[in-house]
Design brief:
Number of strands: 7
Strand content: 15-25%
Number of domains: 1
Strand order of the largest sheet: 3-2-1-4-5-7-6
Largest sheet: 7 strands, mixed
Helix content: 40-55%
CATH architecture: 3-Layer(aba) Sandwich
Shape: globular
Length: 284
């Protein structure tokens, strides 16, 4: 075997071994959050009339699904499906005509393939390049729970429009600059730049509502609905984690990551310059 080929194979094996040992940057220890199930929920949750992590996660998923009127006639694509709890939820409660999914985490994809045989297709890779996957059909509904804001909005929409049917419905969560950002000092802006960078979000790329609507319209979307969920999501998650920490003083890197996320949510909510929003729209 030529030396170059042998070196390539060694590098691939090393990368595969490291990926098993080092968690993906978006990987979350769900058991530390409150879900120790095999196919666990890993979103920030919609905290209304509940102190159960699983219930809050289901409520965030349902709030999005109901806003796009997900039903049994739909070919559904779930982007950034994580450990698979949302996929199981769609199958049990909405019975879509077909269900496909995409996630970056190899371990999650393999686990889902083993535990959810009913899934039509699941691919491992970025949802910013959906053209790379050979889907069996276009989709009536594309949902992305609590993940799209890590991506540039135009890149996300470019990718989604390539697989969404005409009159198809899109639902996702994003972060948006509040109008009050116009009054920020340079120091406040720098603070938010660093805060968001820690969560893998680019401050400069965050749109305000007008920019958001314009971008969606330019990408061919109509009937754009924007709902502010900051209180139910950011404040709710931060309060839940604070309460949990009082009862359970766990340590370790996984717990530290969760605590930092909760503190970020609290800061964003209190400062009020960044809003957590749900967006739904229909492709022309």
């Amino acid at each position: 075997m030529p030396q170059n080929s042998a070196t390539k194979i060694v590098k691939i094996k090393v990368r595969a071994a490291l990926s098993r040992l080092i968690p993906h940057k978006y990987a979350i220890d769900a058991s530390n959050l409150g879900d120790d199930g095999e196919l666990a929920w890993t979103n920030l949750g919609f905290w209304k009339n509940t102190q159960s992590y699983r219930e809050a996660c289901r409520q965030l998923a349902d709030h999005l699904a109901q806003a796009v009127n997900l039903n049994s006639k739909d070919h559904l694509l779930d982007l950034g499906c994580g450990q698979g709890a949302s996929l199981l939820h769609w199958l049990q409660h909405y019975q879509p005509k077909s269900l496909s999914a995409v996630d970056l985490q190899t371990q999650c994809v393999h686990k889902i393939q083993n535990f959810i045989p009913e899934i039509s297709q699941i691919f491992c890779g970025s949802f910013l390049n959906l053209k790379q996957f050979e889907f069996k059909q276009g989709f009536d509904v594309v949902l992305c729970i609590d993940a799209a804001y890590h991506s540039n909005l135009n890149s996300f929409l470019d990718s989604v429009t390539s697989v969404l049917n005409s009159k198809g419905r899109l639902g996702f969560h994003y972060l948006m600059r509040a109008d009050s950002c116009q009054n920020m000092t340079a120091l406040q802006e720098q603070k938010h730049r660093y805060l968001l960078k820690a969560a893998d979000v680019v401050w400069e790329a965050l749109p305000n509502e007008k920019m958001l609507r314009t971008t969606l319209e330019q990408q061919g979307f109509v009937d754009i609905q924007i709902e502010d969920l900051s209180e139910q999501v950011l404040l709710g998650f931060s309060q839940y984690i604070q309460n949990q920490q009082r009862q359970n003083q766990s340590r370790g890197l996984a717990n530290f990551k969760i605590q930092m996320t909760a503190k970020l949510c609290q800061q964003l909510y209190q400062n009020g310059y960044v809003r957590y929003i749900q967006i739904t729209a229909i492709k022309k």
